[in-house]
Queue: 3 jobs
Job 1
Amino acid sequence: VQLQESGPGLVKPSQTLSLTCTVSGDSITTDLSFWSWIRQPPGKALEWMGFIAYSGATYFTPSLKSRSSISRDTARNQFTLRLSSVTLEDTAVYYCNFWSSGRDYWGQGTQVTVSS
């Protein structure tokens, strides 16, 4: 399974960040699969943001829930994170991740910088 993040590397404060993960080697509708977004701000630990499950259901960490959404395009085998009202604290390397029954795959990560 391969995952590839794509999206703008620079976003202005108060704008909406949009990142897409393109998946190959498995389907995002595979039973019991979970497709997550995880980020790592500079000098800080990894932070799990949320996932979209094989069923299409989504779940987010409470601190980001009000600003986050994850959607999917099953035809293109992609899922997309949107994070609204970004601030400087949203600067991070963003990773997409696949987990299913012990299988765990990560994208290479993409740097997103929030700056005016």
Job 2
Amino acid sequence: QVQLVESGGGLVQPGGSLKLSCAASGFTFSSVAMFWLRQAPGKGLEWVSTINAYNTAVYTDSVKGRFTTSRDNAKNTLFLEMNSLKPEDTASYYCARDPRGLVRGQGTQVTVSS
């Protein structure tokens, strides 16, 4: 059974940083691409980043240069390091097995506010 559990969210001031984690189980984590998605209040699910099995990551334009996705295959864990956070980054963040989020975790809330 696929299980994805996100953690690390919280309240941070604009310009601050957070690092999210996603613990994965129930599948061969090291062999598959993984995704970060987010959903802001009142909006739909938005793709944020993809990292492939070879550790190459791509990002949506709005987070390029500020967010970094990485993975630790030995620990079946996905990470999203977020720097220079902006109020518009406020959202629930999800890790997912697919880019549409059909298989995703329960999410972790990130709130960027002064």
Job 3
Amino acid sequence: QVQLVESGGGLVQPGGSLRLSCAASGFTFSNYGMRWYRQAPGKERELVASITWSGGSTYYVDSAKGRFTISRDNAKNTVYLRMNSLKPEDTAVYYCNQGGYWGQGTQVTVSS
């Protein structure tokens, strides 16, 4: 069965960095685009970044452009989200997504 397991979240000060990882299994990872979403308390889940199967094309929500980088390692069945210059408004649960499948999420808290 499809499994997506996120890791790498935590508490970080404003201006800090984190790298999220999503380990995928149960499907041919290299055939599928992958996405990172986030959901802050009281807000709808929003798409943060996506990457095509080859890694050749990426998308970022405007608030993430220039600060976040999505990447993938098809040999490791893993997609990453590098987040720099973090702001308090980046605080959310971050989810990995492939089609109708979701991970359990990893909490990112940006606070001094």
